[in-house]
Amino acid sequence: MNLTGLTRAQLQAVLADSGAVAPSMARMRAGQAWGWMHKHGVTDFAPMTNIAKEARAALAERFVLNRPEVVERQESSDGVVKWLIRFAPGIEAETVFIPDVGRSGALCVSSQVGCTLNCTFCHTGTQALVRNLTAGEIVAQVQVARDDLGEWMTDPGARRLTNIVFMGMGEPLYNLDGVADALDIISDNEGIAISRRRITVSTSGVVPRIRALGERTSAMLAISLHATNDELRDELVPLNRKYPIAELLAAIRDYPGLSNARRVTFEYVMLKGVNDSPAEARALVRLLAGIPAKINLIPFNPWPGSPYECSSGRTIETFADIVNRAGYASPIRRPRGRDILAACGQLKSESEKVRASARRAQVDVP
Q: So what's the architecture of 3-62 in CATH?
């Protein structure tokens, strides 16, 4: 068993049941191992010098601290780094580090291999869902990034990776258990220690699970919106046919902790001639009235075979000005990593295909 993706409670229980340590020592040993795994970033038991040599040997006989395989690493001309990570045969996902986001830099992590949502502007949506990622596989993406960036045991003020965004492959709320456990591990103050205020979970609008996300994780919420009316959103984000805009907004207003200090982020991809008119900007302002929010305007990032074009710079600026004058922060997201297909909406792994029957057996997604 690989210990690096277990929550604290799971780790303690596994050690107590393993015979590697006395049950009375399991809590202490779990705390010691936790620090070595998630603060020091070790990948074997030998460096755990505050654990007796015999106990380390017993742990090494039963457990591993493995990283997944990095199949490919690409670095963009603007400093963005993308890793293709293989967790098992046919189970691959992409993870992207974007420097100079938030306090320092953000890691865009995936929660599923592939996606079920088929959003028409998103490259990931053209890849069939293979399965949910486990909590350990989500955490491993952060570990791989920290390995690459050399940021274990560095001063927090000097770190490049300070924010986590669940905006990679997949719909996080269709993997809420895995996401919640991963977030507990990532935010633990005696380990990776990235504050929940610096972790954002983006959803396309799985309405029944939005409140549960807030209650279980206290994460910052982002909504992949992209349209102001149901007819257009039905086309761009097919999930809207199940959970239309009015239901989505009601769930957002009910999100635990929502306030001016904890605003929801609305993501709005700018598609030429589709959703980028001044009339749409004014409709967006009316739609979000009363919700503490900021609106990220995302220039569309083309991918091979995509049916859309990006709005012009002048069109995006006009749209942003209307939203700004209504009192909403509406930063225009600067496209990053386009030359390595690492920009928003471009992620798509080259996972080897699995038979549909196997996929159905592996996945428990509504």
A: Orthogonal Bundle (1.10)
